[in-house]
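Hey,
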Amino acid sequence: MILSFERICFCFCVSPRRKSTHVLEIGFAWLMILEYATSSRAQEKRAAVNKVPEQIILSEVRRMVEEMQALNKKLEETEAAIEEYFGPIDKQAEMIMKMQLEGEEKTMKEMMKAMQRQTLLEKEAMEKFAKVNQAGEPNQPKQSADEEKAANS
């Protein structure tokens, strides 16, 4: 039974009954006022309960965003600490690699020079051998060592 506040007040004020029952009417009116107040509180509670899921979701989203921001901050701090820790090691590794590359380049250049010298020596030996063969046998064409082995076999 939901009554409006005005109706409750009207019942309370207009009382054509006797004085002995007047106390009962006052009590009844107060009960009606309390019922009205509790019913409006119940409606307020229902409205608040309807808002609760939305508020819960928003608070969860806020909490998750704060957690993600905290994780991002920790990640950035960790990356900075790693870079700070490994920075000198990276520089040392870079210097070692540079020294190794320089050593390899030097070795390669020395090998190239040795191969060029060997090629020049072989070329000179071939020219001397060709001159000796031309001086001894001018009419015969020159055969290589491989061709001679193939002919003898």
